[in-house]
Amino acid sequence: MVLLEVQMHAKPGFKHRLWAQTARFVQLHPQVQHLAVVVVMPHRRLNLGPALLPQQLQSFLDGVIWLSLEELGQEPGLDPLVGLLTLPVLPKPDIPGATGQILRPRPDLLDTVLSILGQRFPHLTREGIMALINLPTDHLRDTRFGQELLAEGRLEGRLEGEARGEARGRVAEAAVMAIRLLNRRCGPLGEAATARIQALPLPQLEALADALLDFSGPDDLAAWLADHTG
Predict the structure, then answer these.
(1) Per-residue pLDDT tens digits for 176-191
(2) pTM exceeds 0.90
(3) What are phi and psi of 57, to 5 degrees?
């Protein structure tokens, strides 16, 4: 029996919770004779609790399989389905090569790749994601997402290009999305913080969208703005 846990964000009480939930699972399923506990996490730097723990808890954790997606992404020759797991944590410059390794043997996974990258980069349009992975935008026609856009009459206009003001529109869209995500992660933003984010150029908005996934409160946003703006 394999007990799988996915933890993508820092949770200082995670180790104690994992121990308690595993014990509860064993209590509810006494027929289980062989149990493996696997924790999937983005990287090993994640704060999941104190280093000094009771001996019984530490003994349990020593038997847990800790799977770092960051380390997994460095393995050569990954199966395409395993490679999909690494897309949320790969450095942005490594994404084109990784998606190529996924899609060359499994072009049918394009929809899944677009969906994963759309969640990671919510400020990017579908065309932006296709450009990120070095795939011609025309390939959108062959995907489920492209068919949905065609049905709504939007894809043709996008493929013919945007009029002037496209860049400003993308900046505004990226700012709106960043502010929406920050409101969820850091609480309601004040007017000053909102104005500073709206004034950011597109490269900084993209960097902020990447960074905010690790924010745990407004202090993280304030520190990021202090480091990246004048």
Answers:
(1) 888 888 888 888 888 8
(2) no
(3) -70, -40
